[in-house]
Write a structure and sequence with these properties.
Elements lengths: L2 E5 L2 E4 L4 E8 L8 E6 L6 E6 L6 E3 L7 E6 L4 E6 L8 E7 L16 E2 L3 E6 L1
Parallel strand pairs: 2-11
Antiparallel strand pairs: 1-3, 3-8, 4-5, 4-9, 5-6, 7-8, 9-10, 9-11
């Protein structure tokens, strides 16, 4: 069983920055693609960013491209989401997720991910 725990969320002003962390336990995720998703009230969960199992490829939703950066530290079994130039539209609960199949391709689809964290709230004020 894999457990993912997000942290780093909070309240920031527009234009500010936050770094979210996702720590995994149960197994290492060094060979697994990881993704960040977010969900605002009344909206569907949407893709934010993903990183390949090798760490050599990253992918971003158009809405966050150029502002957010995903990275991973396999030694710490942790994936990060650096969020800069935050906007009120970024307000949401942010979830990290990992696929169940190692060495598989990255994905932007929620249905492709098996394990999810509990989420961390990010609120961006005007």
């Amino acid at each position: 069983q894999v457990q993912l725990v997000e942290s780093g969320g909070g309240l920031v002003q527009a234009g500010g920055s936050l770094r979210l962390s996702c720590a995994a336990s149960g197994r290492t995720f060094s060979s697994y693609p990881m993704g960040w998703f977010r969900q605002a009230p009344g909206k569907e969960r949407e893709f934010v960013a993903a990183i390949s199992w090798s760490g050599g490829h990253t992918y971003y939703a158009d809405s966050v491209k150029g502002r957010f950066s995903i990275s991973r530290d396999n030694a710490k079994n942790t994936v990060y989401l650096q969020m800069n130039s935050l906007k009120p539209e970024d307000t949401a609960v942010y979830y990290c997720a990992t696929k169940s199949s190692p060495y598989s391709g990255s994905s932007y689809r929620t249905s492709d991910y098996t394990y999810w964290g509990q989420g961390t709230q990010v609120t961006v004020s005007s």
